[in-house]
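Notebook entry, structure prediction.
Reason for the run: the old model in the group folder had no record of what sequence produced it. Starting over properly, with the input documented here first.
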Amino acid sequence: MIHRLDPPLNGRKVFAVASRGSLIQMVLGTPLPNNRQAVSASTHPHSPRLPLWTREYGTLCLISFLFFASYHLLTPVLPLYLTSHHLDDRTVGLIVAGMMISSLLFRPWAGKWADEQHPRKLLWLGVSLFMAGPLLYPITHLPWVWLLVRLMQGIGFALFYTVSTSHLTHSIPPGRKTEGISYYSNAVKLAMAFSPGLGLLLAKQQMFDWAFSLAVVLAVLAMVAIGLLRATCHHPHEEDALTAATGAEGVEAPKFAGKPTGKPTGRLFYAKALRPGWVMYTNSIVFGALIPFVPLLARHQGLLNADVWFYSVYAVFLMLSRALTGRWADRHGYAVVVVPGMALVTLSLWLLASVAQPILFLAAAALYGLGAGVVQPSLIAWAADLAPKSDRGAAMATFTMCTDLGIASGSYLMAVAGGAWGYPATLWLLSLLPLAGLLTFGLFHGKLNPFSLKQAGMTTPAFDS
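New structure, fully documented this time:
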């Protein structure tokens, strides 16, 4: 990202920036950039604000909405479908978990291909492999075939998720990365809001063929929408970003610090992405431990029917937080939203572990939605900023692997520790992880701040599209 120096600030703005910086500095123990350092090319008075909602960006949001609607539709349907064929719990668990296993193993190659190949072809391949599931599940009754199909779906999911996230970071204009990722994440969350319930409704009526057919239709629509993406690898904001950086006066734009951003390096992993990846891991553990076990926690606390409303409240506040804070993070730095977000996640766990009233149970859902909603987009943007364009796919693959590992670890931890020590005690234990993530975020972010200026205040070590 290329930065220009801003004209002098008036006293009121200086006081507001100083107050905000002092607060975050006390929490992190590291200095934050001032407002001059946080001003990007897109906010310079001589540089027009680049549009976010381009055809490429809007199409990506639509594609991901359709794909994840198909994915979440199958999530509650598949275990019930396998159980209806009299498979034991161990076999059902192995088949269901097969997708995550193959997705994690294939993720580095998905990132490598994302850096080397055109995204449209890779997205088509990913959706096609995933669509093999709802096409083949109804026509075979052999468990080993179901497992192979599930492994194939995992490869397709890894390919789609990594490539779409990588291409998304290229399609968002400089200075609006967190805002763009936040709106995109809301499109994915909107799919999750209705498709699992619809799938469960069809499954309870034994209408499995209808559920699988609907999942295929949604995947086909996603493939049609992929055809609307650009036919070339040119990213729509590359030339616009250069123009905005040089300004109206024709000043030569400073060069990016670090490695050139041209030819793909063929990396399977991007080590720098492990920094935001680790912070995301500590938050994903909470997600994996909490979301699947909310019904059991509500039953343990004696809160009948509160679990149903928990998911709705969580989803609403998560989407609101992403819609309202993305632009704020782009303007003032990731710490301004990540620090309070992780603090809210920790507070929500403390509240869930001790409440016995439905209203407080739902208040915890709201706190968790607000906190989790602001953390993930900022960390994705940070991971993207740490990588040059040629390694963006590898960075996204590394980051998303940390996310998936956290979810899997959290579910296993809650199942084992929750059964042994009880769910409230396990929640108190889990609350230490976001605090650990908050501490390491302060260490990493203070040392490698995407907004800290180098070379006489003109460039950053981060890269942008």
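Summary: The two ends are 8 Å apart (CA to CA).
The old model has been moved to the deprecated folder.
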